[in-house]
Amino acid sequence: MERARIWHPAILGEPELLRARRVTHRFPRHTHEGYGFGVIEHGALGFRYRGEELVAPAGTINLVVPDEPHTGQPAVADGWAYRMFYLGADLMGRAHRALAPAAGLPQFRAGVLRDENLAARLGALHEAIELASAPRLELEIRFVALLKDFIRRHASHRPDGDRSRDAPRELACAREYLREHYADEVRLDHLAAITGLSPWHLARTFARAFGVPPHAYQLQLRVGEARRLLARGQAAADVAAATGFTDQSHLIRHFKRLTGMTPGRYRKNVQD
Q1: Does residue 27 sit in the same domain as residue 121?
Q2: Cα–Cα distance between 189 and 226 in angstroms, integer?
Q3: What is the pLDDT of residues 35-93, one digit of tens each?
Q4: Among 34, 115, 174, 198, which is 20 to 30 Å from 58 by CA?
Q5: 0.85 exceeded by the pTM?
Q6: Does residue 181 share a domain with residue 137?
Q7: 3-state DSSP call for residue 111?
Q8: 114 and 21 in one domain?
């Protein structure tokens, strides 16, 4: 049975936590603005990441970094159960600089980490936060220690390249325009005119630079803003209108594809 709970624990502030069981849901190719890492508790997760088809079985850590495209689907018949932390890039950068003051964002090559100790600590901390089974100060200290060990053990010492930073100026301009006009109906020829590129060249190179084509990137932005508005308690119909979806059913269809839950379920999770 598919189930999911997502929330923002007050003790941590910024990070978003997810506990879910997926059986048939398949996440389309997409990216995140921040980092995501979690532990597989049961079953196995399959996903395409950095040009490889990966499998994360129970007891391993799955990981994605900002702007790196990936998918997600069951790798075994009964799907997978997992606990995830989603962190902003700024938070990971601060944790990295605590270890190396001159460091930038930590880079991780692997999408699956086999580290039994870290996986056990990650799962135990996630559960303790969910159940509030330890004092706040203890949980905060355990979280900080976990981030530092995660970076110390698995971050690459060589810069891996940042899609945002390395993208040509024209493509960065196109992405910024989509960010500013995520709720508008943007035409490819208009976007091409802004950048000075041909529509065909823009469509091809944008996907190469940012992992998804312009229309998929705009859709991610719409769903991301929908999440923020739903978390504030706004009704799904109002959110659909504010974020550029044609109607509430249009929002529901794409929101569920990218998050694994309906807008109503997400709003209830976060509000609770």
Answers
A1: yes
A2: 27
A3: 999 999 999 999 999 999 999 999 999 999 999 999 999 999 999 999 999 999 998 98
A4: 34
A5: yes
A6: no
A7: coil
A8: yes
